[in-house]
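Lab meeting, action items carried over

1. Structure of the two-component assembly. Owner: GW. Status: complete.
Input record:
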Amino acid sequence: MEFSRYNKKFDYSFTFGSYPTIELIKNRPTSVIKIITHSKLSGSNGFEIIHRLAGENKIKLNQNDRLIQKISIKDNCFVAGVFKKYTMSLDGQSNHIVLVNPKDSGNLGTIARSMLAFNFSDLAIITPAVDIFKPETIRASMGAIFSLNIQLFESFKKYKEFFPERNLYAFQTTGSENLSKIEFAKPASLVFGNESSGLEELEKGFKTRVKIPQSDKVDSLNLAVSVGIALNNVYSKGL
Amino acid sequence: MEFSRYNKKFDYSFTFGSYPTIELIKNRPTSVIKIITHSKLSGSNGFEIIHRLAGENKIKLNQNDRLIQKISIKDNCFVAGVFKKYTMSLDGQSNHIVLVNPKDSGNLGTIARSMLAFNFSDLAIITPAVDIFKPETIRASMGAIFSLNIQLFESFKKYKEFFPERNLYAFQTTGSENLSKIEFAKPASLVFGNESSGLEELEKGFKTRVKIPQSDKVDSLNLAVSVGIALNNVYSKGL
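Predicted assembly:
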């Protein structure tokens, strides 16, 4: 099978570079189709680990410099993983991050990385949204995507129908409660709008509308920064 | 004068889109060379504001669809600002963010935006570093770059010689003190390593080595997220 540069319509996707490829094999070994290596990978730290993990999981390694160059999104990429896309289901007892229509792959990947850092494992995404398996998302996540449960919902209403017993916290610049004062109740869903519009249309059904206090010199924080601040706060409160 | 697509060597740079262009005119009017508009800008909100601000500051507006398309880094860009690069000096009495060798323009822009949100106006950058005037940096900052004082230093040592009386806080995953427990003393300098290496080489002279508590499931947080969490913490403590 020959592979092409990534397209959203594919039923497979790629990891580029040692770090995300190692996370892929560790966390989703049964989804790996193959690992493609470049002749320059040999001798590096990544080479040893990838060879060992691939052996343990009976995954094929193919050296193919030309193919890596053809499909890679970054320069000097010496290893790529090819994996079949998979679906996941959220844990109803866990705390969730809910992203409404996220548009930016860098932000989504960064959020995945922050979630792992602050022990959140469940991410709900309301579509339309950026492709979770886009190589740029995976790269920004440093492979954290492979450790999370991510489930897509076609509307926020559908999410609420699926999980009716949640404590819903809307993060909004117009929120009425300061983040630092809130005692979160489990299971909590922290809900964020996207990079250009808030949650105004969804305002019903929230337990609390939360704001991250800030100056009036900017319209809002970057989405990944807002989520990071919220996660850090929840983590430090030991929810 | 005809303009080309941005190159680091130029003594001028560009803003693309209404939001950063408005911030440019508002905050650095004397650095503006000209504003280039696209015929599709007329009728939009941005059009009104940009025309008014340009008029008040005696700045030339030129409609030139072809030129915008030629120099723009994004699709559907209907206004661009051209400005002369300028130098700035930090305020020795203020709190500073210090970034050691930042490499990513998106992170740098996002950090600028967070600084403005949390009332930090002074940013020290230790070179080599990403270009602060790169259009991608400006775009990620939403124009916040134009409200900050940013000064470059060729080494951290030079920064310390320039500002000998600072309380220096090193942010490190190996830090000994938890962020939430720290009482920051003014004037504070919050110092961060770059996207791939920490501050190990600079470990002398720090007042406190600070860590953002997190799980051991990731190596570190994204740089812009770390800085955002630190700024939010300092802001909420009212430093």
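2. GW to write a short summary for the group page. Key points so far: Chain A has two domains: 12-84, 96-236. Helices of chain A lie at 18-27, 45-56, 65-71, 105-117, 135-140, 156-162, 223-236.
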